Amino acid sequence: MDSHQPNSLSALLVFKHSLNFELVRSLHAYRFEDGKEVEEEREFLFSEDGSYVEMAANPFLRLQKLCVSEVSAGCVIESWVCLFVFGPHNPPILDCIPPILMISCNPKLQSIPALANDLQIIFELGSRLENKEPSHVPSENNEPSHVASEEIHESNKDDQSKRTLFMFDLNCPPCPVATPETPENHHKEAPGIIMKKKRAASEDVAKIALEDLVKYFDVPMVEASRNLKIGLTVLKRKCREFGIPRWPHRKIKSLDGLIRDLQEEADRQQLENEAAAMAVLKRQRMLETEKECIEQRPFMEIEDETKRFRQDVFKRRHRARALKNRG
Description:
Helix content is 43%, strand content 13%.
């Protein structure tokens, strides 16, 4: 790209490798004054022990001919998981920027100015847009500011109905604990208004590691966010940061059920057929190993052999219930 020509950043995609978490790849789109647009692809090593380094990048993302409007955080392209998207249809929402891509949370970014400068431009643009939004009525589900403005306009337009605007904070735990109603609280809260909860501290959110999420893979995402004391939106953002496209609760629960069934079968076979019991225990150990792999790499899918075995178990249970109902 000719640095002497005035240009502006029009789009930025950031991907993280699903196997080697230290590899990060970015696709930058710059628009010149004459309307011409140029794409640049870069690859970086986000070393945990040392500084970040930019490396030579083969044009992998450019060859995919990606449409920015069709890419979202969490989508997977071969071995790369999207962390962040900025473009004409993806305005910079500060809450959606992963901490690893924020200079204030990750000072190591300063060692790779090719990425840090563009991220700083997006951050400053997001700050300006956020300051223009009405602070007393935040939009739901991180919708763009024009959606919240339209809702406020409709509220002012309908003077007869005088609708009450409820205040929500998406960074709050999804099921807050209700406090006992006292005369003091009764006077403080207006009827029909949900008081805005305190946001989780950015420092506490940034400290959440993959090991903290692994502890709650066996429970639904809502319950996990409650146990971690963060909002559901923040938990989803952390999942995107760690390359988790989908909360693995169902996979872990399914494997746990199969492991329990095999343990019961092994106990029964132990008294009747020792060779069969050993085969069942071998299958059980294979499932336990697969479960550990999914906990370490949540983006992994259940093995095809395990899916076939699970299907056989379901069929046997169905036949057993059918025979029992006939009897």
